[in-house]
Design brief:
The structure holds 3 protein chains of 3 kinds. By secondary structure, chain B is an all-alpha fold. Chain B is built from 6 helices and no strands. The longest helix of chain B has about 35 residues. Chain C has a domain of about 170 residues: MetI-like (MetI-like fold). The chains are: A alpha/beta, B mainly alpha, C mainly alpha.
Chain lengths: ~260, ~230, ~300
């Protein structure tokens, strides 16, 4: 029985991008997620906060089925993106991962040039035309607010960029396949404060076109950028609601204790 | 400093912050106590026509102002440095507003003391007995407000903002009627009666500010901003 | 204040200059270890230098242009060379490498990506066993498997024997190189919608390229100097250039062996010359490997 009420509007009312019902996850014998039910709204930034090991990253990786790569993983429950159950037998994993993209904690550009990194996605999905690719690369780098900084060095190795630039490159690489949903797993935790703010500004700009689900261990970041926030604790979704309410007057005492820093 | 110097409670998350917040709350109560004491002295100076006491009250206003500034500075510092959330954020925000209310209480007490000094220059005019009753009740309201802030008892806050405030409003009306009637009967005492009207007015305003603080206490506890003293 | 379980207080003046006896002892031990390490390295360098010196000293005396391009001549006839051996070695090493690399690299990639289960462990074990087979035994096995059915010694057989030696080396080097590729690259590729196969082709293998090529080149250097596998497979040829691959073929290490064992001083000095050529070739290969590895590493890291 789920104990939390969501104050996010029901999908009928406003179009949830992702709807999760009674999701549970086991790594072998260990239960990592317990009966998670949540509706992630479209064109908003939803943040998931909670202490280390509370399951928020595991939950994120369920949404693009990256957990399938791990052995001994068992999943029960339903995860629907745009109304379609992504764990159905007939689901095309390639199409799902195009639609639901992911940015990781440490920037992980491929050992290729800047251009090839961004073009990687379109290439594997069938685009070959050089002119088309150039246009896609420019558009994606522009959307990631990186074009001006790299337009003169598109053929230089991606590793030569700074940490913040590399992370924006990873975002551009993701945008190049034209996804619907962006999953961000602590994207700023390896970056300095200024780069962090740049990425946050980028997120705020991106939410017009995409729906963003952000996992962060920094609740101040969550309060700065997100419209909705979910608090995870020990594999459970304790509370979910509008960010301003969750941080000003949380309904659950555990949330209250956590946001005040009364436990880590 | 050896490692044995710290005990377990000091290593709880945000122990330092919790201590600073507690100190702030104590400072607020201190400000309220100063204001309450000023009120008490002002009413006694009225009763005894004691201008020396009245002047003491006016001097004490500096103490209240300093405390007000001190608390405000500490609040801003805590906000900037500690990024408080939820209840802590509501507490600090409420303290910032409540000190303004309590500082007004101190100011009104000064105003009462000022009237006492003016009244001493006039012919003696016996204030209505009810005025002192009103003064006692308002003084009690200030003390009750500070108690509510410590105890966070929402029922007491409710009583403060409704029952007790209503009582004061009723008393205010009765005293005003009495003084106005008197002013019509004996025009010679108009000046004194008018000054006493002001005193009653100041007392009523003090009660009002107490209800404001009560609403802040309610907000800290529930997160709801509500007008509590509407009938 | 010091109750015995604590270190001496570190904030009193003069602490830095206390206990000179302990400091001297620590420095003495440090110097001793330094000496042992440097000494061992010097010893090693000395041995390598000795080998190179001898080979060069003896070999340079007998080397000539003729040596490189002539066939062997009978004892007493001047002007013989090991041209066919050099060419034969080049041919067999190239063929063997082609085979060894084209099988070893995919095996290595498989073991790195999927080799954590029982199948992978078995295959890895098999390659380890292959690695441990004495080279002469591989030669004998290839004799039975290739030479006998073909009814002839051949460069094919020699190449296959060399490939068998090469395979575990290439496989191991490839596996190590691929395992070192950060998992985050694979995750990023999968998250973009690539299949595992595409990920391996486009990201993992290019990422491991330096390690794979270095490992392959080192394996090539290893087999270039092998003698025993050639004994029963290509057998050696004193009189002919390798005109086709299905004939007994000379190999440089094999000829060095034969000439060195002979009683003729002329042939012995030719053996030195051959050794010199072999060593120089291997040195060159190693230099190329080092240069390539260094350059690629720099370019990958930006």
């Amino acid at each position: 029985m789920s104990r939390q009420e969501t104050s996010a509007p029901s999908s009928a009312a406003r179009g949830s991008k992702i709807e999760v019902q009674n999701l549970s996850l086991w790594y072998g014998k260990t239960r990592a997620l317990e009966n998670i039910s949540i509706a992630i709204p479209a064109h908003e930034i939803t943040a998931l906060i909670g202490p280390s090991g509370c399951g928020k990253s595991s939950f994120l990786r369920c949404v693009n089925r990256m957990n399938d790569l791990i052995e001994n993983v068992r999943i029960e429950g339903k995860v629907c993106v745009n109304g379609e159950d992504i764990y159905a037998k007939s689901v095309d994993l390639i199409a799902l991962r195009r639609q639901v993209g992911m940015v990781f904690q440490r920037p992980n550009p491929f050992p290729m040039s800047v251009f090839d990194n961004v073009a990687y996605g379109p290439r594997i999905h069938g685009r070959r035309n050089r002119v088309e690719l150039q246009e896609i690369v420019q558009r994606s780098l522009d959307a990631a607010v990186l074009w001006d900084e790299v337009k003169d060095k598109l053929s230089s190795p991606a590793m030569s960029l700074s940490g913040g630039q590399q992370q924006r490159l990873c975002i551009a690489r993701l945008l190049a396949v034209e996804p619907d949903v962006l999953l961000m797993d602590e994207p700023c935790s390896a970056l300095d404060p200024v780069s962090t703010f740049k990425i946050e500004e980028l997120m705020l700009g991106l939410k017009e076109k995409y729906s963003i689900l952000l996992v962060t261990h920094n609740m101040f970041q969550a309060s700065r950028v997100s419209n909705f926030t979910g608090f995870f604790l020990s594999g459970e979704l304790v509370e979910f609601g509008k960010t301003e309410e969750l941080f000003e007057k949380p309904r659950d005492k555990r949330t209250d204790d956590y946001v005040r820093g009364r436990f880590g | 400093m050896s490692a044995e110097g710290l005990d377990n409670s000091m290593l709880e998350p945000r122990h330092q912050f919790a201590e600073r917040l507690f100190d702030l709350e104590q400072d607020l109560i201190r400000l309220g106590s100063v204001a309450a004491r000023m009120l008490q002295k002002a009413m006694r100076s009225l009763k005894d026509t004691d201008t020396a006491l009245a002047r003491e009250v006016i001097d004490e206003d500096d103490v209240a102002d300093d405390l007000d500034l001190h608390i405000e500075t500490r609040c801003m510092r805590l906000l900037a440095q500690q990024q408080p959330m939820a209840r802590d954020l509501r507490t600090i925000g409420s303290i910032l507003k409540a000190i303004a209310d309590l500082e007004r209480v101190a100011d009104f007490s000064c105003d009462i003391a000022l009237e006492v000094i003016h009244l001493a220059e006039e012919l003696r005019y016996e204030p209505p007995a009810r005025l002192f009753g009103m003064g006692d009740k308002v003084f009690q309201m200030v003390l009750d407000t500070l108690d509510c802030f410590s105890s966070r008892d929402l029922d007491a806050v409710q009583r403060l903002c409704t029952t007790q405030d209503d009582e004061i409003d009723d008393l205010y009306r009765e005293i005003t009627d009495e003084l106005l009637a008197h002013m019509k009967e004996e025009p010679t005492v108009v000046t004194q009666a008018a000054r006493l009207l002001f005193v009653a007015h100041y007392l009523e305003r003090i009660a009002d500010h107490c209800t404001n603080v009560g609403e802040r206490i309610h907000y800290i506890e529930t997160g709801q901003l509500k007008q509590l003293n509407v009938p | 204040m010091n109750n015995g379980t604590h270190l001496p207080a570190s904030n009193e003046p003069g602490t830095l200059y206390r206990n000179p006896g302990g400091r001297r002892k620590r420095h003495a031990i440090d110097r001793l270890m330094n000496f042992v390490c440097c000494g061992s390295t010097a010893l090693l360098a000395l041995m390598v230098a000795l080998v190179l010196y001898y080979v060069a000293a003896e070999g340079l005396a007998s080397i000539s242009w003729k040596f490189l391009v002539h066939l062997p001549r009978p004892v007493g006839v001047p002007g013989g060379g090991m041209g066919n051996g050099i060419l034969g070695s080049i041919i067999m090493v190239l063929m063997g490498s082609a085979l060894g690399i084209s099988v070893g690299v995919p095996v290595g990639i498989y073991l790195a990506e999927y080799g954590n289960g029982n199948t992978g462990n078995s295959i890895r074990f098999l390659t380890e066993v292959m690695n441990g087979i004495p080279t002469i035994v591989s030669g004998v096995v290839v004799y039975w498997l290739v030479v006998v059915p073909m009814h002839t010694f051949s460069a094919y057989a020699g190449a296959i024997a060399l490939a068998i030696i090469m395979l575990p080396l290439v496989s191991r080097a490839t596996e190590v190189a691929v395992r070192q590729v950060p998992q985050s690259w694979r995750e990023a590729s999968i998250a973009l919608g690539a299949t595992p196969a595409r990920t391996i082709w486009s990201v993992v293998t290019p990422g491991a390229r330096t390690g794979i090529i270095t490992g392959a080149l080192l394996a090539v250097a290893r087999i270039a100097g092998e003698t025993a596998p050639l004994l029963f497979t290509s057998f050696g040829n004193d009189v002919q250039w390798p005109t086709h691959l299905g004939m007994a073929t000379a190999g440089l290490p094999l000829q060095i062996f034969v000439y060195a064992m002979s009683p003729y001083s002329e042939w012995k000095s030719q053996a030195w010359a051959g050794a010199f050529v072999l060593v120089m070739g291997l040195l060159l290969l190693n230099v190329v490997v080092r240069a390539f590895a260094g350059r690629s590493a720099i370019s990958m890291q930006g």
